[in-house]
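Support request, please re-run this one:
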Amino acid sequence: MRKIVFASLLSGALFFSVKAEAPTPEQLKILKEMGVSPADVIVEEGRDYYHNLKGKTGKTCASCHGQDGANLVGAYAKMPRYYTDIKRVADIDVRIKACLEKYVGVDAKGKKGRKYIVPLAGYVATLSNGMPINVELKHPEEKRLYELGKELWYKRVGARDFSCAICHEVLDGKRIRLQKLGAPVRDKLYAHWPAYRISKDKLWTMEDRIRGCYKSFFLFDPEKGKFDFKKNWVKKPPFYIEEVVALELYMKKAANGAKIEVPGLIR
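Re-run finished. Output below.
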């Protein structure tokens, strides 16, 4: 309990010190050396859901995957990938949502679902800490989505005529709204996601990050419920859609070999 309280106080201090800047390597090093992170509380919440959250089936995640995630060690390192039971390529968000609804019997839709999915994603991802990312493209759907993700990474769209590559390759190291732009493909940054976003005081999965970026692109058509590359809209795309998973697959495949260290810490 003392550790959790101290983590909360320390994260609050860091929030005010980094609100206009990304956390420095020194600040992140201090957190790691002291063995505390604001995300620890959320990950522990995910661990509790894993063992105790029950739905209509009377089962928990542990009923299928073992105590303390014994059967999930290393699973996150290989995601996104194709799952035969849901007949699609899934990132960690999609996989957890499907498990909750299909096997646990919990309504995981909307914001209520994110309440469970994000902490669970954080917990499950930690079970692969220290392991190298090893995303393979064996199934035809994995190959198709990888190519789609690559296309979307470079596709210039929206009112701002931006692409992922404009920010994260061409403008790498420069600033947008005082924030330095990283190079997630080149620097294999996926190894540090899910990440605790200090300025939002939330744990974010990569789906959260990608949706935020696409809102800046102005291209999701809420009336059609899909991307429209000819119109400009200011709205985040829904969770769990193919385009988001495709971008994740492209980025995480590029991070192959990098050792997973989650949850990360970002501004």
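The chain has ten helices and nine strands. Residues 1-22 have pLDDT under 50 and may be disordered.
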